[in-house]
From TrEMBL:
Residues 70-87 have a biased composition (Polar residues). SUPFAM superfamilies: Class I glutamine amidotransferase-like. It comes from the Eukaryota. This is Class I glutamine amidotransferase-like protein. GO terms for cellular component: cytosol; nucleus. Gene3D superfamilies: 3.40.50.880. It comes from Aspergillus sclerotiicarbonarius (strain CBS 121057 / IBT 28362). Residues 70-97 are annotated as: Disordered. Signal peptide: none annotated. Residues 88-97 have a biased composition (Basic and acidic residues).
């Protein structure tokens, strides 16, 4: 039986330029994402030869105001075809002859950026927010993924007091904000404790309860779940979920958490996925980025050394970046299983939750001696 083949076309929105030492060795963020996602797709094909996902990408200078035209977005589900039996040179020729521009865009990917999504002085941010909202509302077959700044922009665009839709309950909303992290910057290789519902949605995780990913950010996404009582008054949700990781309105799900950042990603089954961390960063990229940020922003030498030490000396085999990339490929190919689960199943809390006392204690500790980072990712 010939393998089933899917072709996905990702529009990658470059919203920043890598620091010089990274750019000269790895290229733009869009190039780095292309390489990592293509490699992840190849690994998945080796694991499941009966399924093949081909990845094409087109980069857009979103920082310079370039965004995909809506006419280029797909309006139908990703088609599945059967691969031919060509091998070797014939297969390579077939791949090279396919023009990404002839394939409707099936996914939007927003890269990281040193910018803050709430900074009113950035004229290029509002058009991207409007674009993401339009894609989400009018193009249901187009997936959306964001990394770090992209994660924060998605939260701001789609969850910051949005109007009720058929997918979200009128009786609840999520008071979602993107703001400066009160615990200070999160930098280095961190262990993200995954939400059980998220793990269940992606069998490729093999029930793994955490992902080790590189971090470098000073903003975060925060949420306080509110519900509307029968009298029409909004009240904080109480009871079983009190003190656990922040909740989001159904069908949205918090991917996971770290001690310093309770919302480490967003997942809306079949539609949206985001990571606060950087699966596209290895130690080299994160270290060079950190050192350059320190130079630009005047960080103390001791702070830079501490961050560099937290970043460590690991490549793609010393963290979970490869697995995180494979999850993204599965999502972009429409192979996540979250949309088949119940709301209760999806929103099961992670095994390790952050209690109120622990969180407040960390907050106070983080505020003491915190150095203000005026420009954050």
């Amino acid at each position: 039986m010939r393998p089933k083949k899917k072709t996905i076309h990702i529009a990658i929105l470059d919203v920043d330029v890598p620091v010089p030492n990274v750019y000269t060795t790895r290229g733009l963020y869009s190039t780095q994402f292309h390489s990592l996602l293509t490699a992840a797709s190849s690994r998945l094909t080796q694991q499941t030869p009966s399924q093949e996902t081909r990845i094409h990408t087109t980069a857009f200078d979103a920082l310079g105001g370039q965004l995909p035209s809506f006419s280029s977005l797909t309006t139908t589900p990703i088609p599945t075809s059967h691969s031919n039996t060509n091998t070797g040179k014939e297969e390579e020729k077939e791949r090279n002859e396919i023009s990404p521009l002839s394939i409707p865009i099936t996914a939007i990917l927003i890269t990281g950026s040193v910018a803050s999504v709430y900074d009113p002085s950035l004229p290029w941010v509002p058009p991207i927010i409007d674009f993401v909202r339009t894609v989400y509302e009018r193009y249901p077959h187009v997936k959306i993924f964001g990394s770090c700044f992209g994660h924060q922009l998605i939260a701001h665009a789609l969850l910051s007091n949005p109007p009720p839709t058929k997918e979200t309950s009128n009786s609840s909303r999520s008071d979602v904000r993107v703001e400066c992290c009160p615990l200070g910057m999160e930098v280095g290789l961190e262990r993200v404790q995954l939400n059980c519902g998220f793990v269940d949605a992606f069998p490729c995780l093999n029930n793994k309860q955490e992902l080790k990913l590189q971090m470098i950010h000073g903003d975060w996404v925060s949420s306080s779940l509110l519900f509307t009582s029968e009298e029409g008054e909004e009240e904080e949700e109480e009871g079983e979920g009190k003190g656990e990781a922040p909740a989001l309105p159904a069908p949205w799900l918090n991917v996971g958490s770290t001690d310093q950042c309770p919302i480490q990603g967003l997942y809306c089954p079949g539609r949206v996925l985001s990571y606060q961390g950087h699966f596209e960063f290895d130690s080299f990229v994160n270290r060079e980025t950190c050192v350059e940020f320190g130079r630009r922003l005047g960080w103390k030498e001791e702070m830079v050394k501490r961050y560099v030490g937290a970043i460590g000396e690991v490549d793609g085999n010393g963290d979970d970046s490869k697995l995180a990339a494979e999850v993204v490929v599965r999502f972009l190919a429409g192979e996540d299983e979250g949309h088949t689960g119940t709301e209760k199943d999806l929103n099961r809390a992670p095994e390790k939750s952050i209690g109120v006392g622990e969180w407040v204690g960390g907050l106070i500790g983080g505020l003491i001696g915190q150095l203000v980072w005026s420009t954050k990712e």
